[in-house]
Design brief:
Helix 4 (75-87) packs parallel to helix 5 (102-114), helix 5 (102-114) runs antiparallel to helix 9 (314-332) and helix 6 crosses helix 7. The strands form 3 sheets. Strands 16-15-12-11-7-10-9-8-17 form a 9-stranded mixed β-sheet. The protein is α/β, with parallel strands linked by helices. It is globular. The chain is built from 10 helices and 17 strands. Helix 2 links the parallel strand 2 (27-33) and strand 3 (54-55).
Length: 345
């Protein structure tokens, strides 16, 4: 068993406390931390958490002998809290993005390495049947090299309960980071340069741009065409988007995390040989999916000392964070190409 404390019990953190952590069998909770007494009181009254396990600061909580800190805080708190957790000798799993800048992210990665601790970013979209199957098919060269990847994400935020109208870069930083991270995972490749344009339509409630298009060039030559919108009037896509991966000998077509208006649908993946019909592929279920998958993965790494393929370590996730920042920079330059190397300096 991995003994863990959770840091951050706000709206999203409470969701982790209630819906995620109890479903991971090799996690033993020994502490809950939030500097807001109302937040700690809520987990006590609504979830029956013993008040002796609740703390108002990290220093007191660190004395309980935990192995892992589950950091579920607002983005701007990620860097200072994760840094302190690592300094206290804890392994860490943290929500994305795990830092606000590449410099901060590098510092956390280096601190984790120096202290011999595991730092994982909870890229929960990786833990779904369709992207895992797609990554394995691409890795096995099912249809040969990938030439073009097309991804569509469509949601209408005003009619779907969206709340974060003043968030900077609500598409690229908050949503597209999932899609960009999946590109890296599924292709088994790193981006080389990007071009991106974003905009805010008339009558939008967003304070910043909720729509964008991007072209991404990868090291092996694959081009990805990405279109995302929080203000779409078109058919709603699954949260992970709709993907078409055009290879030399056929297409891999898939979608994932099909949740809409309280209803959940299965992941889907089809294979289409060139000039043939698309045929659905049966996707095996995975034991722990989504956020339970990320938490289960770091628990297993702590227990075994072995890091599996496609594990979203802080070091790996530097490249996803850089991709997000490159698209934001390109958009600020009117769509000019931005080399990832410029961001990673």
């Amino acid at each position: 068993m991995v003994k863990a404390i959770q840091v951050g019990l706000g709206h999203w953190g409470f969701s982790w406390t209630k819906e995620v952590i109890p479903k991971v069998p090799n996690i033993e909770m020994v502490g809950y931390v939030d500097n807001n007494p109302e937040a700690t009181k809520r987990v006590q009254t609504e979830l029956g958490i013993d008040e002796k396990l609740c703390f108002l600061n990290l220093e007191d909580a660190s004395a309980v002998g935990a192995d892992l800190a589950i950091c579920t805080l607002r983005t701007e708190a990620h860097y200072p809290v994760v840094k302190r957790c690592l300094e206290l000798g804890l392994n860490v799993i943290v929500e994305k993005p795990f830092a606000s800048t590449i410099a901060q992210a590098r510092e956390l990665v280096e601190l984790a390495r120096a202290n011999g601790r595991v730092l994982m970013v909870s890229q929960n979209y990786r833990f779904q049947p369709a992207p895992i199957a797609a990554a394995e098919l691409i890795g096995a060269q099912k249809f040969g090299p990938v030439n073009l990847v097309s991804i569509e994400f469509r949601r209408h935020a005003p009619s779907q309960g969206y709340r974060y109208w003043d968030m900077p870069d609500p598409l690229l930083a908050d949503m597209s980071i999932h899609h960009f991270d999946l590109m890296r995972m599924v292709l088994g490749d790193e981006p080389k340069r990007v071009s991106c344009r974003t905009w805010n339509p008339t009558a939008s409630p967003f304070g910043h741009h909720p729509i964008g298009v991007a072209t991404l060039e990868f090291e092996k030559g694959t081009i990805a065409s990405y279109r995302g919108s929080w203000m779409s009037s078109g058919p709603v896509t699954p949260w992970a988007g709709e993907w078409t991966m055009d290879c030399s000998e056929g297409e891999i077509i898939w979608s994932s995390r099909d949740h809409f208006m309280g209803k959940a649908g299965p992941d889907k993946l089809s294979l289409r040989e060139r000039d043939g019909e698309a045929k659905p592929l049966d996707l095996p279920p995975i034991e722990l999916a989504d956020r339970t998958g990320t938490l289960g993965a770091i628990a297993k790494v702590i227990e075994t000392g072995s890091m599996p393929a496609r594990f979203s370590s802080g070091e790996d996730n530097l490249h996803s964070l850089a991709l997000v920042q490159a698209t934001i920079l390109s958009a600020s330059r009117g769509g000019d190409w931005v080399d990832i190397a410029e961001i990673m300096q």
